[in-house]
Amino acid sequence: DSGVTQTPKHLITATGQRVTLRCSPRSGDLSVYWYQQSLDQGLQFLIQYYNGEERAKGNILERFSAQQFPDLHSELNLSSLELGDSALYFCASSSGVGGNTIYFGEGSWLTVV
Amino acid sequence: DQQVKQNSPSLSVQEGRISILNCDYTNSMFDYFLWYKKYPAEGPTFLISISSIKDKNEDGRFTVFLNKSAKHLSLHIVPSQPGDSAVYFCAARANNAGNMLTFGGGTRLMVKP
């Protein structure tokens, strides 16, 4: 158990819909990261937050957004969903903004039908 | 453009023998490299890392080798055990990119009893 908690574990939704994935980082960790793993692909970095502020942005679509709240939990919002958005979405956390080991949650399986 | 590549999607090894997983990278700004192990239905778990100032790091049965001139790193597992069967991801971090990790596509290791 990495200490990073993600909900829901599985989600099935229709195209065009909007979903929110939730992440609670390890106790004491200030950085939260979101990664996407599609079929036949490695983990793709989406976005990083540190202590409530956006820190780094990767290949995140404009239809996707994220935020980190004062209690340090984070949410990833996915809107206007398309079939290609079906993937495993991982949240990860680390204690600092850089130079630290990143610990991953178990992921949220999103299936868009 | 894949900056981190794991060219072998799968590897099969007999229990007790050595497993060698390889990873190549292209970005010369990468200065820290990590290996993660992933079991089905779980998030990636940190395994071992190496800084670019070193060429070898060892932790029990796991050793990571870094060849900077060749932009190549490898993970050696000796002796391999059936419980090592998992997908192994190589990841790299650039010195100008905070804690953002770039992942390879993964190698599925199967250790046969």
Q: Helix coverage percent of residues of chain B?
A: under 10%
> Of all protein chain pairs, which has the greatest interface, and how many residues does each chain bring to it?
A-B, 30 and 25 residues
Cα-to-Cα separation, first versus last residue of chain B: 38 Å
Order of helices and strands of chain A: EEEEEEEEEEE
> In one word, what is the shape of chain B?
globular
Order of helices and strands of chain B: EEEEEEEEEEE
Number of strands of chain A: 11
Tell the overall outline of chain A.
globular
What's the overall average pLDDT of chain A, rounded?
93
Q: Describe the oligomeric state of these chains in a short phrase.
A: heterodimer
Head-to-tail CA distance between termini of chain A: 31 Å
Number of helical elements of chain B: 0
Radius of gyration of chain A: 13 Å
Biggest sheet features of chain A:
7 strands, mixed
**Unreliable stretches of chain A:** none
Strand content bin of chain A: over 45%
Arithmetic mean pLDDT of chain B:
93
Classification by helices and strands of chain A: mainly beta
Summarize the entry for a quick read.
The complex is a heterodimer of chains A (113) and B (113). Chain A has 113 residues and is an all-beta fold.
Would you give an account of this structure?
The complex is a heterodimer of chains A (113) and B (113). Chain A is mainly beta and 113 residues long. Helices cover 0% and strands 51% of the residues of chain A. Chain A contains no helices and eleven strands. In chain A, the strands form two sheets. In chain A, strands 2, 4, 5, 6, 9, 10 and 11 form a seven-stranded mixed beta sheet that branches. In chain A, strands 1-3-8-7 form a four-stranded antiparallel beta sheet, with no helix packed on it. In chain A, strand 9 and strand 10 form a beta hairpin. Chain A is globular, with a radius of gyration of 13 Å. Chain B is an all-beta fold. The model of chain B has no long low-confidence stretch (mean pLDDT 93). Chains A and B meet through strand 4, strand 5, strand 9 and strand 10 of A and strand 4, strand 5, strand 9 and strand 10 of B.
